[in-house]
Specification:
318 residues; 19% strand; 9-stranded mixed sheet; globular; D-Maltodextrin-Binding Protein, domain 2; 12 helices; 9 strands
């Protein structure tokens, strides 16, 4: 509740302090920048470029995508947090910008209330994978194997406090078992180590397994099966009510005038429903329910902040 009050108070204060002149200026009357705090050439880069292309004619201005990676997303995120709160510099990022980075990258100056959500336009499920001939064929098998060898089984993720890492920790906590974590820089490296047998299991973004038959999906963390992986059972189906996800979309710096956020949300809503963006979303293995409007996105973000705070405290204590 304290976190929710902080977000609400910050938003109200930002509106009160917004410049009257800025509020009256026509928006937008010059090009916008969408900052992605990750390198080009990945699924999230495809999505931001598709969204920018669809929003540009709606806003009647060019929308330029800028990749500004570094420090697990903190470098680009900080650059937007420090930008003028005028609606022209927008961040495209997972919700971890509010729920994880303010804790893990505290020295960056990022805070829970550094940004205001605009719209959610992606929702990535997490999954556990093993090699095709692994004797572990279900979460029950994995739980039993881990109980037989406490702390000896290994799992890989794309980094410490990444969403796949937190997903595995959440499931392990629910299952009452322990593993040894081995961090890597990308899901592809994790899957390579799983295939060779150097890792017992990998925790990955589900879309990273699209089109591959060299790993077996042990479980998908979602409420229902993904249409691209209809034969892969969810953790819920296997008796574990664990549904971590990496969701996100557009954010603006706190202090951005309300009417400008509303204009961006309107354009985002229309763009996310276009055939072009939906095609990009399907290419990235997005589920049908990838979109949320600002109100729903804000509620989900607040819940995620609270959940991740508890998880990160447990990891620190351990």
């Amino acid at each position: 509740m304290l976190i929710r009050r902080r977000i609400a108070v910050a938003a109200a204060a930002a509106l009160a302090l917004a410049s009257p002149a800025l509020a009256q200026e026509a928006f937008p009357n010059r090009p916008l920048q969408f900052v992605l705090p990750y390198p080009p050439g990945n699924a999230i880069d495809l999505l931001v470029r598709a969204l920018a292309a669809e929003m540009s004619p709606l806003l009647r201005q060019s929308v330029v995508v800028i990749n500004r990676d570094g420090a697990a997303g903190a470098v680009g995120s900080v650059s937007v947090a420090r930008a003028a709160a005028d609606g022209y510099t927008v961040l495209f990022v997972p919700a971890l910008v509010a729920s994880v980075l303010p804790v893990t990258q505290a020295s960056s100056g990022l805070r829970v209330d550094s940004f205001r959500p605009v719209c959610q336009v992606f929702n990535n499920s997490m999954a556990l994978v093993v090699k095709p001939d692994s004797p572990i064929r279900s979460l029950a098998d994995l739980q039993a194997a881990a109980r037989a060898q406490p702390g000896r089984l290994t799992y890989g993720t794309l980094g410490v406090t990444s969403i796949p890492h937190l997903a595995m920790e959440q499931w392990a906590g629910a299952a009452g078992v322990e593993f040894t974590h081995v961090p890597f820089r990308a899901d592809a490296a994790v899957m390579t180590e799983v295939i060779t047998g150097r890792l017992d299991v990998g925790s990955i973004v589900l879309g990273s397994a699209a089109g591959r038959n060299d790993v077996r999906i042990l479980a998908v963390f979602d409420s229902e099966r993904h249409p691209d992986f209809p034969d892969s059972a969810t953790a819920v189906e296997q008796g574990f009510n664990v549904l971590p996800a990496s969701f996100g979309g557009l954010f603006v710096p706190t202090g951005t005038p309300e009417e400008r956020i509303a204009a961006l949300e309107t354009a985002c809503t229309t763009a996310a429903g276009t055939a072009a963006y939906r095609a990009a979303a399907r290419t990235g293995s997005q589920p049908a329910n990838f979109f949320l409007d600002r109100a729903a996105f804000t509620r989900r973000l607040q819940s995620d902040v609270e959940t991740k705070a508890a998880q990160l405290r447990r990891l620190t204590l351990n």
